[in-house]
Each structure stands twice: as structure tokens, then as C-alpha cells.
Write a structure and sequence with these properties.
3-stranded mixed β-sheet, about 20% strand, about 270 residues, alpha/beta, about 20% helix, Glutaconate Coenzyme A-transferase, 9-stranded mixed β-sheet
Length: about 270
């Protein structure tokens, strides 16, 4: 008898897709107030990455057997330290940059352009009087410049977010396009790999590094993605659907990671 898949929410799908990108042994760093990447990191750690090091707010730890700490309180919950299998203060020390090549990071943006450059600074042509002020770049320039790879995660797929050109660049993805763009800027890290949104997953074409549609989430129309993207998106006609969460992934996500349902909203 064929088992029926459980119903899921889009943020749950995003977390599952990101979790599948993470490998055992990765150092996975998640910044402040990013529940989807945090859920992804914890889910991967529980399902297939017992040797991952999770880095929250600069503290590096292995918490594979730690349960029952809800999102979003997890990042600063003292029980992480109390019950962690291991703990270190080396997660965010800049004197250890040479060890960041196996580190994975996540970054959001109030603007993201076609080459994966992101803007957390603000919107408006006059930096002295912004139309909208963002949270600031914080430590993202250093992290995205040095980590082995990172993923762009945005919670709203709209033209005002996915833009032709960012008003300001808080992180450099692939510059103005070119597979050697980061090398020319002497940035040692591997750059952005994917951009995950509530509608789809996008990667970057190998040579031009222009954003390209990689998969479409079930129930989403290609026309809707194109309409809500602020630049001409490379959208192959044979773009597959994103692979839905398995029952095991959803059960683990809801019972051991997000049992308060932070991600169960659309």
C-alpha cells in the first residue's frame, strides 16, 4: 500500500530543501532571527549529520542528541551549553578564518539581485535619507567572503526583493557576473550556491553566474515566479518540481525541531 505524504507548509519545504544541501562534517553557521535556516541545520544534524558542528551566535557546538528546544528560542537558550555534547567559543573568532573553508552560512536580504549580491543596509538612492532602513550588514560581509559556501534565503518572493540591481551591497555574491568575479576581488570563499524562496529554488549559471530557476515548488506556476521576479530570470522549460518532504523529514521537523509551529504558516 502506498503511503500518503503529509501536508506541509512552504517554510517547512524550504527548511527541508536546505537541510538536504548540508553534509555530515560541515560547520553550519546560522545568524540571528533566521528560523528557516536554523530549522534546516538542526534537521540535517538529526537526520544525516551527527558530526556537524552547529554555530549559533558565534558559539560552536555539537547537539545531535539535544531535543525539545523550540524555534526561535534555540539560538540563545542556555540549555544548548548545558546539555551539548561539545561546546567551543571558536565559532566566530576571526583569527581562525583559514578554517572557514568547510563552513556553511545563510544570508537573507531586503534586496537580492540576479548575481546573488544582497542588501541588508536599506532602500533608497540617498544613503543619508533612506526610504527604508534595514538591519545593517553586521558580520555578513566577512562571513560570505570567507566561508566555503553559503545559501541565500528570502521569505518573500517579490519584485521589490528580487531586483535588477541592489541599491547597496552588504554582501558580494558574483559581483556583476562572471565565474571569476570573486577571484578577481580576492574573495577566498566559494560564494552563493542557491537562492531559496517560498516559490522556488534558483542556482547560478556556471559561466555568467546569472540566477537560474532550478526547481519550482509544487503548486506554484512558472508564470507567477516570472511575474514576481524583478529581473529576467533564466527559466528552462523543463525545470523540475522541488522534491517534497518525506514523512520522516516532516515528522522529525515537527516533533524534534519546530514543535511550536513557527514554520507552519504561509
Amino acid at each position: 500500500m502506498r503511503r500518503t505524504r503529509k501536508k506541509y507548509f512552504r517554510k517547512e519545504l524550504m527548511a527541508v530543501l536546505l537541510a538536504r544541501e548540508l553534509a555530515d562534517g560541515d560547520d553550519v553557521q546560522v545568524g540571528f532571527a533566521l528560523p528557516v535556516p536554523e530549522a534546516a541545520a538542526r534537521l540535517a544534524h538529526l537526520l544525516h549529520g551527527p558530526n556537524m558542528n552547529l554555530i549559533f551566535l558565534g558559539a560552536q557546538m555539537n547537539v545531535h542528541h539535544l531535543e525539545k528546544i523550540p524555534l526561535p528560542e534555540f539560538s540563545w537558550d542556555c540549555r544548548v551549553v548545558r546539555w551539548a555534547e561539545s561546546y567551543s567559543d571558536k565559532g566566530h573568532r576571526f583569527d581562525r578564518l583559514k578554517y572557514w573553508r568547510k563552513r556553511v552560512f545563510f544570508v537573507g536580504g531586503i534586496q537580492v539581485d540576479r548575481y546573488g549580491n544582497t542588501n541588508l543596509i536599506g532602500v533608497g538612492k540617498d544613503f543619508k535619507k533612506l526610504d527604508f532602513r534595514g538591519p545593517g550588514s553586521i558580520g555578513t560581509p566577512t562571513l560570505t567572503s570567507n566561508v566555503g559556501r553559503y545559501y541565500i534565503v528570502i521569505n518573500n518572493h517579490e519584485k521589490k526583493c528580487l531586483v535588477e540591481r541592489c541599491d547597496y551591497r552588504s554582501t558580494v555574491g558574483w559581483g556583476d557576473g562572471d565565474r571569476l568575479a570573486r577571484k578577481k576581488l580576492h574573495l577566498p570563499g566559494g560564494g552563493p550556491q542557491l537562492c531559496v524562496t517560498p516559490l522556488c529554488v534558483m542556482d547560478f549559471e556556471e559561466n555568467t553566474k546569472m540566477m537560474r530557476l532550478k526547481s519550482i515548488h509544487p503548486g506554484v506556476n512558472l508564470e507567477d515566479i516570472i511575474e514576481r521576479t524583478g529581473f529576467d530570470l533564466d527559466a528552462p522549460n523543463d525545470t523540475p518540481l522541488s522534491i517534497e518532504p518525506t514523512n520522516e523529514e516532516l515528522t522529525t521537523l515537527r516533533s524534534r525541531v519546530d514543535f511550536n509551529g513557527i514554520l507552519r504558516v504561509d
